[in-house]
Amino acid sequence: MVCEEELLIEKVCGLYEQISSLESLKPCKNVDMLFTQLVLTCIPPSPIDVTNLNKNVQEIRSHLIKLCGEAEGHLETHYSTLLGSYDNPLQNLHIFPYYSNYLKLGLLEFTILTQHCTHVPSKIAFVGSGPLPLTSIVLASNHLPSTTFHNYDMDPLANSNAMRLVSSHPDLSNRMVFHTTDILDVSNALKEYEVVYLAALVGMDKEGKNRIIDHLAKHMNPGALLMLRSAHGARAFLYPVIEPCDLRGFEVLTVFHPTDEVINSVLIARKYPVPMHSLDQGLASKILPNKCSEIQAFNPLNHGNMIEEFAIEEQL
After folding, report:
1. How much is the pTM?
2. Is DNA-binding among the key words of this record (predicted)?
């Protein structure tokens, strides 16, 4: 058991050495090969808990997540530019190598959403939509044909690339709105959305991620849903991890850890209908420690693809 974990860490660290010595992370044969190896190393279900790693490996992990984020940004920009050169970009999305993953993730997130949303949301915000806003496109095209998607990204170039993909589409060009701004500068507008998605790579470290979650908790409408992406087991070498106890001001409804090629775990939470300050004083401290310990007991190796539900009412 320990041996298997040590082999995994050794392999990940070896790949980190090679990736961190690359001159550029833009798509090319060598970059693609190294990241493919890294993903294939981290995908198999593993009992590894990245919070227990030694300091050196922790630092390697946080650097690796940043490198993965940078490489993913280059990959999306590359394919967004390529797709933008077609007459009908949206008919050619299959050329993006991970498109099938987005189809699966979109279906998964929509399924989880329908379990907690009593009606079809009219407005959804996606924070960190990037140059290739595939989640918004998949949800808008396949699952939510009447919903308007407000895509937020700080990078004006990412937004102009993304707009080019949908501008020629008669339906999506009307239902996909793009905002070039830092989500921390958005307050009143957040009250308009029934669902807010937070992309996996928004807030690359714990501190940054928590600052954004706290901002959303402060400004989202009470009762609105927050959909987040996290990582579990060895996949936490690729993406930041969100623990349910990080979601102050939210009731955690579902935590789901895929065991297939969909890499990201999915969390959905509902903003409490009570003001934040009363949470800080009592309710949260009563609930969240229990929720954390209960959720940590969830082992995807035993449950396969089972969705776990947590109801706060039961604990109260």
Report:
1. 0.85
2. no
